[in-house]
Design a protein that fits this description.
1283 residues; alpha/beta; eleven-stranded mixed beta sheet; two-stranded antiparallel ribbon; 46 helices; 17 strands; globular
Length: 1283
């Protein structure tokens, strides 16, 4: 039988219609080139900024030396003060950031923890201050460059302790030992050089002792790295574990205290040393201007370069370019600083000897006396020359003509540098994942501006590297793809099914190299059944879905072909009758599953939100929680189960999809990275691209682009994204199962406001619930998804009719809960809520603003009074507003379309007129011109920052001329039709000329039974006549093995309302009764008969799961009764709510227009008058009058756009990091026998890719889960004959 199924049915029909399955949207080749450029730029910036930071800091130390002459002796406190500023700058930044993040939920640390942390902070800050302010100004430049490498001495000791306590074969134990020895040798040579040079110089001995002691104290700076990551994990001491836990939980408070302590200690050291050194602070008020510029430039370069080095070094780690852009540039920075400071000294010395023309044999000591110390102190010459000579002065105490001094000095520098490299050598094998959190990369937020490269390298996370290549544990995550469907077209279904199969190809279920996440796809098909002759059968949309799955399966299975072997044969799949309708289970080619849930609206509540509630309780309540309940019943420890359940919820994600979403596996991976790396992120969404053609779609493409480029990025950067769209968003199960989220989301709409907020914009309401509970919602612009957009004017207006009021309701809800949200959610501040408030006010004032825009256009074109123009501009929208209260929805949209065309011509005329006005008056320096040019520049730069989408700028012209339609007419339509809570889109259109079908009257059980009995009696009467013919037809079908579909007796589904089929006596022929047998047999038999290429074997639900569905339906998803009185009451309540909100909404717009009208009448009294300037910035003699209210509104809008623009620039850098980090970390292709299919470019990094990590931390939990799942599979694998 199977061999027959493998044979082709039609050998002559060998051509296929294969859709595109590769990623043709993302320019991976360009991104790879961009990666190379970006990594090179980051490496150069890290190296250059570290070089500038260290060089400028050493110049400050040199200027504070007693013998240098760039600064006179009395001005040395200025240099010391600048050194102190360099030391505390990062502490000031850390203090401000910690204060910003402080809230009432911040925990106070224990006294012992605070005392220990502050003790080490005191040692480090005191050591850094003594070393840099007191000791280093008395040392030579070579020692000053390299002594910072000696701060790794304590780190070397702690590494030895940590690696020895791990009891493993450590790869870097010997380098650590040799590094410690080399650093000690460097200290010995340093002491030998300075102490033996002049043993009687007590002051020098003190400076040297302070330098050694200060550098050792500074080396305690990295104690947390080894304590938190290694010693506490391998220690049996409870004190250390509690200490680490307390430090992590109370990190914010400890940062505030430690940064304040550092500032105070540094200030005390400076304040005590200056008087002791017999210097006077009063010189600060009388510094010459040239010296001031020198000091200001040096300290400015030092502070800026230190900050840039820290930021770009962190970016390099997140890009997973640890060696190329982080470690190597910082290693080379010290050598480059040495070369930059010493080579000019040698060059100047040789030039001086050459200038003598051999008249005198001068050595370095004589050169110091004559040319360095004996020079004129004035700064009339080049500043660079004076700085070089000051650097030379620090070397003058040594006799550089002696080889011994040079060797000892060079030896100490080399041993320090090599020792530092050996101590930090473990970083070369450090496993860094994509976009890893800063706190997981750098143990402390603080960086040391004085020795930036040492602080960054020693502050990087320490992991014990064993000789066996054991990867860092990364917990495996479970992803449920949950798509909701209703009336999607065949092509739309094809898009999402291909996307799911593409992900199956990308992450095979049984691939051991790709076990970072597993997934299972669920499709929830609303209203999938229709009444057919007393029975319920799948409608045409559900049948199309099954056909699409069958075709796509064949496409992805068609790899290893034989010439005359059937190419698209689909293995047997399961079909199940369920309490909510039916279920189709499809095993994809790579082992992952698609489960299609066909919902019968007579058995379970329909519409999108209830489908979401259905899969939330099924996947998170039944699938996830029940496993732990079963194990608890078996006697396992409750506390352990609670911890495992919490971890499971944290690592379970739900990818919400629409029925037409097209996405690539890379987009899913990028969203998974956001939730995996950042534990407080409850949801993350990607960049949604509308697809389609025509002017309506073009308008939406630019609208979507601007909203994502500016608005959504600004929300992500300065606060939280308020709406994660349901068409492509990843949610964390822990967030969804939090208090007041999933339970509240299951609330039935019982008030008029509930229908608007809950049902019209369910994705925005879900995000509102998450934000209220303190979860962060993020946006990843690198994660692209494509969804069909409305292609006609009516469908667009109906879609926005839902979105507009629901958006307003949810934002008002958030603004009303500002106090609670700012306390619970660390990502949302009151400033961000004020930003949202201004956005809400702008949206409310949108209609009146458009009227003012039209008024200005009429004034400019018709040259009439502005007040009269305002009255004229208000008349059309006022008439349209009145008509909307009286006319039907379709008529309102028709009128809006006509007005939109008129307004478009008006906007086109205005745009041309404004350009003509600029040319005529030869000036662009009017407020309106400046604003327009300013906005155009921002949009062009923003588009240039999105090169892949730059072509959307050409749709911007259409967007501009459609502004009145989008922000005036559409607003009026959506507000007036707020009481219409129907979906409005994807409604099935009846055939042209067809009469509307009558309303379906649901049959009772008695009626259905009676109908079945009547059919059964009719069948008995002609059974004898038809049995032989029936058997012949069955035999013919078996031999032909074709997939011909039987004729459908029912009409096409229209608006989910279908007609009952009644069989009259004239129609009761034998052929019809044969089909009646199939209909009576049920929808399963009907579906099995349609697709012979894909055998559907009937199965049944487990009894426990069946009981679960029955309880869930009874509790939350029972179909709502058709209560006419209740529905009429709710219609009245919705209408009353609509009237109240509309009155407030439009009265505010009226107030705004009246205020503007009054100001225009009394323009000479209230107007702001400014002179008009030409292009040469000269006054033309004309006066420009600006209305104060309009000016303030435009100013506020301009400030908002600037904030969004700056946020966009920052977010583009983050997106670039996401792209660069992702490229080459995922498999480009998976090889199969005979051919290959490409999905993502790049090759796997065997030692640092997320996908190659091991997952031992949840091994026991996953094993138990798999055992339970295997038991479920065994229970579900029942033979069809047993039914």
């Amino acid at each position: 039988m199977e061999e027959q199924r493998d044979l082709p049915k039609r050998p002559w029909d060998i051509c296929q219609d294969v859709p595109i399955i590769e990623d043709e949207q993302t320019p991976w080749k360009m991104i790879k080139l961009l990666k190379i450029i970006s990594l090179f730029a980051v490496a150069v910036i890290v190296f250059g900024s570290a070089l500038c930071s260290k060089t400028s800091f050493l110049l400050l130390i040199t200027l504070s030396n007693e013998g240098t002459k760039t600064l006179p002796p009395e001005q040395k406190p200025v240099a010391l003060l600048c050194i102190g500023c360099s030391l505390i700058a990062s502490s000031v930044f850390l203090f401000l950031k910690s204060i910003w993040k402080y809230d009432e939920t911040s925990k106070l640390p224990r006294k012992t923890t605070s005392a220990l942390v502050l003790f080490f902070e005191f040692l480090v800050s005191a050591g850094a201050s003594i070393l840099t302010i007191v000791a280093m100004p008395h040392l030579d430049i070579v020692t000053n460059v390299t002594i910072f490498n000696g701060v790794a001495v304590i780190s070397a000791i702690l590494q030895l302790v940590a690696q020895c306590s791990a009891k493993q074969r450590n790869r870097f134990l010997m380098p650590c030992i040799f590094g410690f020895i080399f650093i000690l040798i460097g200290y010995v040579l340093f002491l030998l050089l300075y102490i033996t040079k002049n043993p009687s110089d007590i002051k020098m001995a003190i400076w040297v002792g302070l330098a050694v002691g200060g550098s050792i104290l500074v080396s305690f700076n990295s104690w947390e790295s080894y304590l938190k990551k290694t010693i506490s994990d391998n220690s049996s001491f409870t004190f250390l574990k509690n200490l680490c836990s307390d430090i992590e939980e109370c990190q914010n408070i400890l940062y505030i205290l430690s940064s304040l302590l550092r500032i105070v200690v540094t200030a005390c050291v400076i304040g005590a040393y200056v008087p002791l050194a017999k210097m006077d602070w009063s010189i600060l008020t009388s510094i010459p201007s040239r010296e001031t510029k020198i000091i200001a430039i040096i300290i400015g370069v030092q502070l800026i370069s230190s900050t840039l080095c820290h930021w770009f070094a962190l970016a390099a780690c997140k890009m997973r370019a640890l060696r190329r852009c982080f470690i190597l540039p910082l290693y080379l920075a010290s050598l480059a600083v040495m070369a930059l400071l010493v080579i000019p000294v040698i060059v100047y010395y040789q030039d001086y000897r050459t200038s003598l023309n051999g008249t005198a044999n001068i050595n370095f000591t004589d050169y110091c006396k004559v040319a360095v110390d004996g020079r004129n102190q004035s700064l009339n010459d080049s500043v660079f020359q004076h700085l070089v000579l000051d650097v030379t002065h620090t070397l003058c105490f040594l006799d550089m003509s002696k080889i011994a001094d040079i060797c000892i000095l060079t030896g100490s520098a080399v041993f320090w540098w090599i020792g530092f490299v050996l101590v930090t050598l473990y970083l070369w094998k450090l496993n860094v994942h994509r976009i890893e959190r800063t706190q997981d990369l750098l143990i402390r937020r603080l960086y040391e501006g004085a020795f930036i490269e040492q602080s960054l390298l020693l502050n990087t996370r320490f992991d014990i590297q064993t000789k066996e290549r054991i990867q860092k544990d990364v917990e495996q995550v479970k992803v449920y793809l949950c798509a909701t469907m209703w009336h999607e077209t065949y092509e739309e279904m094809m898009s999402i099914i291909i996307s799911i199969f593409r992900l199956d190809e990308y992450r095979p279920k049984e691939d051991p190299k790709s076990n970072d996440f597993t997934f299972k796809a669920h499709i929830y098909f609303d209203d999938a059944f229709e009444a057919v002759g007393g029975s319920r059968h799948l409608n045409k949309y559900a049948k199309d879905l099954v056909k699409v799955i069958k075709e796509v399966f064949g496409i992805f299975k068609n790899i290893d072909q034989k010439l005359f072997k059937k190419q698209q044969q689909v293995p047997d799949q399961k079909i199940i009758q369920t309490p909510y309708g039916g279920r189709l289970i499809v095993n994809m080619p790579q082992g992952n599953k698609i489960v299609v849930h066909f919902k019968d609206k007579e058995l379970i509540r329909h519409k999108k939100r209830w489908s979401q509630i259905m899969y939330l309780y099924y996947l998170l309540g039944w699938k996830l929680t029940r496993k732990f309940y079963t194990r608890w019943q078996q006697g396992e420890d409750e506390q352990k189960l609670k911890e495992q359940a919490q971890k499971k919820k944290h690592n379970t994600y739900i990818l919400a999809l629409d029925g037409d979403t097209d996405f690539q596996p890379a987009s899913v991976m990028l969203l998974i990275d956001r939730l995996r790396i950042y534990p407080h992120v409850g949801a993350a969404c990607g960049r949604i691209h509308p697809t389609g053609s025509g002017p309506v779609v073009w308008f939406q493409k630019f609208e979507y682009a601007v909203s994502h480029w500016l608005q959504k990025t600004a929300e992500h950067v300065i606060g939280c994204v308020l709406c994660s769209p349901g068409c492509f968003s990843l949610f964390r199960a822990e967030a969804l199962m939090d208090d007041n989220v999933m339970k509240t989301y299951s609330t039935e709409s019982k008030e008029a406001s509930h229908y608007i907020q809950y049902d019209q914009g369910e994705d925005r309401w879900l995000c509102t619930l998450l934000l209220k509970q303190g979860w962060k919602v993020e946006y990843n612009a690198a994660s692209d998804a494509y969804t069909n957009a409305p292609m006609d004017f009516k469908e667009l207006y109906n879609q926005r009719r839902r979105w507009g009021p629901s958006t307003m309701a949810n934002v008002v809800d958030l603004l009303g809960s500002t106090k609670i949200i700012t306390k619970r959610n660390q990502s949302i501040s009151k400033a961000f809520m004020f930003y949202q408030l201004f956005g809400m006010i702008s949206s409310i004032m949108g209609p009146s603003t458009i009227c003012l825009l039209v008024s200005g256009s009429l004034t400019f074109i018709l040259n009439i009074n502005s007040a009269a123009a305002l009255v004229i501009s208000v008349i059309p929208p006022a008439i349209y507003l009145g008509l909307c209260f009286k006319l039907k929805s379709d008529t309102q949209i028709t009128i809006a379309a006509i007005l939109s065309v008129c307004y478009a011509f008006l906007m086109l005329t205005v745009a041309i007129s404004i350009i003509g006005s600029m040319l005529k008056e030869k000036t662009i320096l009017t407020p309106s011109s400046i604003f327009i040019i300013f906005m155009a520049i921002i949009y062009l730069i923003t588009a240039a920052m999105h090169p892949q989408e730059f072509n959307l700028v050409f749709y911007g012209f259409l967007y501009i001329i459609c502004i009145p339609s989008a922000y005036l007419l559409l607003t009026i339509y959506s507000m007036v039709n707020m009481n219409n809570v129907s979906w409005g889109t994807r409604e099935t259109k009846p055939a042209a000329g067809a009469a509307p079908p009558p309303a379906l009257t649901p049959q009772t059980r008695a009626q259905k039974a009676k109908s079945i009995c009547q059919w059964f009696i009719s069948w008995v009467k002609c059974c004898k006549k038809s049995s032989q013919r029936f058997q012949g037809e069955q035999l013919s079908r078996s031999q032909d093995n074709t997939a011909q579909e039987p004729e459908q007796l029912e009409p096409e589904a229209q608006n989910t309302i279908v007609e009952d089929i009644t069989i009259t006596e004239e129609e009761q022929g034998c052929d019809l009764i044969i089909f009646a047998i199939l209909l009576l047999a049920g929808w399963i038999e009907m579906l099995q008969s349609l697709y012979s290429d894909m055998k559907l074997q009937e199965d049944s639900l487990d009894q426990e799961e069946k009981e679960f569905w029955e309880e869930l339906i009874n509790e939350y998803l029972e179909p709502l009764p058709d209560d006419k009185e209740k529905q009429k009451k709710m219609d009245n309540e919705l209408r009353e709510l609509r009237n109240k909100i509309n009155f407030s909404f439009f009265i505010l717009n009226a107030f705004w227009l009246v205020a503007t009208f009054i100001f225009q009448i009394f323009n000479s009294t209230f107007a702001i008058c400014i002179p008009k300037l030409n292009l040469q910035l000269q006054e033309t003699g004309d006066i420009i009058q600006i209305e104060p209210i309009a000016f303030m509104f435009i100013l506020g809008f301009a400030v908002t756009v600037v904030i969004q623009f700056l946020a966009m620039l920052y977010h583009r850098i983050q997106t670039l990091i996401d792209y660069v980090a992702f490229v080459d970390t995922e498999p480009k292709e998976r090889k199969k026998t005979g051919s290959q299919k490409s999905y993502l470019p790049g090759k796997r990094d065997e030692f640092s890719s997320n996908a190659d990590s091991s997952y031992r931390s949840m091994e026991d939990l996953e094993t138990n889960d798999r055992d339970i799942e295997s038991q479920e599979d065994l229970m579900n694998q029942r033979d069809c004959s047993a039914l």
